[in-house]
Amino acid sequence: MNYEPARPAGRLLLTPQDKDVAARVRRLRRLGLGARAEPAFDAFADRLAEVTAVPYSMVNFIDENRQFFAGLHTPDGGDLDGGLGGELGGELGGGPGVGRYMARDYGFCPHVVVRRKALVLEDVCDYPRFAGNPVVDEIGVRSYLGAPLIDHTGIVLGTVCAVDIEPRPWGRAGLEIIKSMAAELVEQIELREGGGLPEG
Q1: Is 138 in contact with 97 (CB distance < 8 Å)?
Q2: What does residue 106 show for φ and ψ, rounded to 5 degrees?
Q3: 130-138: which pairs have CB atoms within 8 A and are 24 or more residues apart?
């Protein structure tokens, strides 16, 4: 069964086809992830924002319909219930906001999930494939640093990412930080699955 929504003819395919979405959705449901915000994930996003010195960071789980930020750090520390791409959200850079939900066609995390590798965009405007993404014009995203959350079953559960509204010279250090933090979070998720850590 194909979970990818139909795309209008002639529209540039900006979001890659996700062939593993069905397996990921089953795994997320089994783990109880991606349905609600969790304080532990918010705390993780706060720490990621502090380490990378960015205004926005997320723990993102992607299902067949949307992206869900189970962990979210925003500059004002607010818990925004809305989102982008068809759902209401708060303010970021004067435009539509970043909330707990985002359409699958928005942002760069879906690319990280499909490619199963970290993605470093120091200035998204330098990359035509990414510069046309709605988050660039509608939110003002200029730089992105993200890594996949790959669990012991080999499923990419989602991503961790750091986002800025200014270009950032992430370099090798930024890549190592995001990969290390992704690995740390996967360990926490697997401990929870094994009964080692409480949920939420």
Answers
A1: no
A2: -100, 140
A3: 132/12, 132/14, 133/14, 133/105, 133/106, 133/107, 133/108, 134/84, 134/85, 134/105, 134/106, 135/84, 135/106, 135/107, 135/108, 138/84, 138/95, 138/96
pLDDT in tens, 82-136: 444 433 333 333 334 568 999 888 889 999 999 999 999 999 999 988 988 888 8
Whole-structure pTM over 0.85, yes or no?
Answer: no
Compute CA 102 distance to the chain's CA centroid, rounded to the nearest angstrom. 9
CB 148 within 8 A of CB 118: yes
Q: Tens of pLDDT along 4-56?
A: 333 333 344 467 788 999 999 999 999 999 989 999 999 999 999 999 999 99
| SS3 of the chain: helix, strand, coil, percent, to 5 | 35, 20, 45
CA distances from 160 to 9, 117, 127, 145 (A): 32, 12, 21, 8
Residue 129 · residue 119 · CB < 8 Å: no
